Every structure is written in structure tokens, then in C-alpha cells.
Amino acid sequence: MRLTVLGCAGSFPGPESACSAYLVEADGFRLLLDFGSGSLSALQRYAGLKAVDAIVLSHLHCDHMMDACTYVVVRRYAPDGPYPPLPVYAPSGAPERLSAAYSAEEGPLDDVYTFYGLQPGSFPIGPFTVTVDRVNHPVETYGVRLEHDGRVLAYSGDTAVCDALLRLAQGADLFLCEASYLDGVDNPPDLHLTGREAGEVATKAGVGRLLLTHLVTAWGSEVETLENAMSTFQGPVEIARPGARYEV
Ligand SMILES: [Zn+2]
Ligand SMILES: [Zn+2]
């Protein structure tokens, strides 16, 4: 499978990147993991306006789902549209949240999206076997494990350290893991990971490669985050960049 980072900025768009959105392709099927603010722009730059066959939203914070609202216009009003409803796998309440954010007066988005509620477990999406589990974040949030052809990509979503994250990442070839916080400062509990913690999870899970994401550029330090992750994980580590592609 192939991963393209569309957006990787944590919490709000950064000067160089949209918020979280990751396109994963296999056998011609295109699965979008998260659709955060600004990432519709990156979808056009790195893939194409229609280059999505299904969407998984890890949770309903704006930096992970807001452009699923913007995308309604594309699917509903394109000159060669409307396009058929797109499957969206998301936490409970997604249909209401997205339609309210799109417009208070225009009703449901059923013509644009077919919603499926996420619950912990495994299920197929296109050629992928998808496993999701609840992770440690203040709202209903899922980490995601994608398997295809014996290869594994794990995505943390937003989370603090938790057992579910370790299970999802177990033996992953590529572990796309958030590292929002700096180490050595007094971070709020049960929200996010530091670089050191991301590295610790990667080591315990025995992953092949660690890709750090969701850094909050304006408040953090890429250098420190990378160094801290490398202090606890001996394998290859790098920081996600918009447009970067990985064969998994
Ligand atoms: Zn986030
Ligand atoms: Zn969040």
C-alpha cells in the first residue's frame, strides 16, 4: 500500500501544512484517513479532487474532519456530478456534526456521504482489513490499523499513551504516530503524546519505521521532538511532511 501525507499539522493548520489527512492507496482503492482543515487543498495538489473512495475519521475535532464539510460542495455540485455517496466511517454523531457545520438549514448530507458508526473491531474497507480501537483522548477517538497483502500501517489518531495504541501498532511496518507535545514540560494528561512517548510505544510494539505527525509547529520544536523520539526508538524515525509518500 502507498501512504501520501496530505496534511500533518497538529490542532490547527500550520504555515506549511494543512491539518491531518492521509491518503492510503492499494489495488487502485483510495482510503482517506482524516480530513482536517485545509487538507482539501492538499488532496487536489497531491492526488486529485475526486481521488477518494472511502473516508475514516478518527474523531470529530475540527483538525481531523472539517474539510469533510467543505468537500460536500465538490461532491454535490461538481459540473460532472453529483457524485455517488461516499462511505464515511466515523464516531457516533458524525452525520449531525458534519451537516450542522456545513449548514444549519440545508438538512442531512445523505446524498453526499453514507455514514457508518465506528466501533472497536475489524472490518473490510475496499482491499484493506481495518482494525480500530478507542484511544485516550477527551472525545470518542479511534486509532486505526490497516492491513493489506501482509503489510501493516498503524495510525494513532490523537491520543495519550494507552494499551489500545500499543495493540494497534503491534508489528506495524509503518507507525504514523502523533507527537503533539514537547517532553520535559507539564503537559495536560490524557490528550496527546510527546516524541519520547511515541518512540516508547514504537519500541514496545516492535514497529519497523516511525513517522511522527500532528506536531504543533507554532508551539513546539521539530528538532526536539525528533531527538526525543530517537532516544527511545532505535529504528528509522522521521517527521511527516505534506506531499511525502511511503511505500508500506
Ligand atoms: Zn488533532
Ligand atoms: Zn483531537
Query: How many domains, as an integer?
Result: 1
Q: Any idea what the radius of gyration is? A: 17 Å
Identify the CATH architecture. 4-Layer Sandwich
Please report the distance between the alpha carbons of the first and last residues: 5 Å
Labels describing this entry:
248 residues; alpha/beta; Metallo-beta-lactamase, Chain A; 14 strands; 28% strand
Structure commentary:
The protein has a single domain (2-247), classed as Ribonuclease Z/Hydroxyacylglutathione hydrolase-like (Metallo-beta-lactamase, Chain A). The protein is 25% helix and 28% strand. It is built from 7 helices and 14 strands. The strands form 2 sheets. Strands 6-5-4-3-2-1-14 form a 7-stranded mixed beta sheet. The chain has a 7-stranded mixed beta sheet with strand order 7-8-9-10-11-12-13, with helices on one face. Helix 5 links the parallel strand 10 (151-155) and strand 11. The longest helix is centred in the N-terminal third of the chain and has 11 residues, at 67-77. The radius of gyration is 17 Å and the shape is globular. The mean pLDDT is 97. Bound molecules: zinc ion (2 copies). One zinc ion is lined by residues 59, 61, 137, 158.
Layout of secondary structure:
Layout: E1 2-7, E2 21-26, E3 29-33, H1 39-46, E4 54-56, H2 62-65, H3 67-77, E5 86-90, H4 94-102, E6 113-117, E7 121-125, E8 128-134, E9 142-148, E10 151-155, H5 163-169, E11 174-178, H6 195-205, E12 210-213, H7 222-232, E13 237-239, E14 245-247
Parallel strand pairs: 3-4, 4-5, 5-6, 10-11, 11-12, 12-13
Antiparallel strand pairs: 1-2, 1-14, 2-3, 7-8, 8-9, 9-10
Helix pairs in contact: 3-4, 5-6, 6-7
The protein binds zinc ion (2 copies).
One zinc ion is lined by residues 59, 61, 137, 158.
